[in-house]
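JOB MANIFEST
job_type = single_chain_structure
chain_count = 1
residues = 327
[input]
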Amino acid sequence: MNPLRIHTTSLTTGITRTLEFEKKGLCTHAVNTGTKCGHGCSYCSTGALLRMHPSFKAAQESPFGSGFAIVDPTTPERVARDAHRLRQRGPIQLCTTVDAWAPEAQRFQLGRRCLEAILAEPDWTVRILTKNAAVANDFDLIGKHTDRVLVGLSLTAAPDKSAVIKAVEPNASTISERMAAMKEAHRLGLRTYAMFCPLLPGIADSKEAIAELVEFAEECDVEEVFVESVNARGPGLRRTQEALAAGGFPHEAAAVGAIRHQQAWSHYVRNLVANIQEALRRAGALDTLRFLLYPSRLTAADAEWIQGHSEGVKWLGKEGGQAPAVT
């Protein structure tokens, strides 16, 4: 793991409503354990979302910087408070902007402690999303609440691209480690879902790569398959291109650089929709697809094509779950 500067902060929230993730069909509530995740993914959009948060100024760090994390060790106490007092209950995603099993969160056992706080109260369910195989250390706790917890480890490529992925996700578990954790969850009878996000161009968007990921997901008996293109918001694409070039992957860097232009990004998304639909259709599991799509940067032609092939597509943003009008 690369060296990591860990800063602590004091947040005010525990469990919060999240209308955006409710539109995505992921959860109604969210828990986040900090404002900057130590996995250091180059494409992460959290910096753009939280750039004005005072924790960055206090830490004297740029929200778009790297090599650091900002975490609140007291998060489980606030989660326990909210889990008890809130009456409108539902599925909680742990987490939506950071990772409760990232290195800095592991230091304070935040993933397990937050789970304990939530599951101590009735009527809450939890969707875990992490890029860290350390979540397997908490399968004993999850196994006591199998009807209330969904386990997902974000997979961003097939195993043969592990070296490439390490360049853009330097402190996350390897793809093979994440897959091993998913297999173990399935072996133990835990509920699982797949999260393929983001599937980067030139790395994980080909028919072959997607078919391999889908085959693995079916082996784990996943309940849903969530897919998303890389977020073009903020400096993520540029930083990813630079990280790939610095890591010795010029072809992959060029593929990411190409979609910094709208037309190429739009065509990449259209192909991604087509390839995941084809793979899941062949597996007889197209009904499990949840392709999360913000269409604002699509060209009219690609938007129209996707509207005509919209199985599993969840239109987000101003469209509010509906396909945008094509003019």
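[summary]
Residues 34 and 71 are 4 Å apart (CA to CA).
The chain has a mean pLDDT of 95.
exit_status = 0
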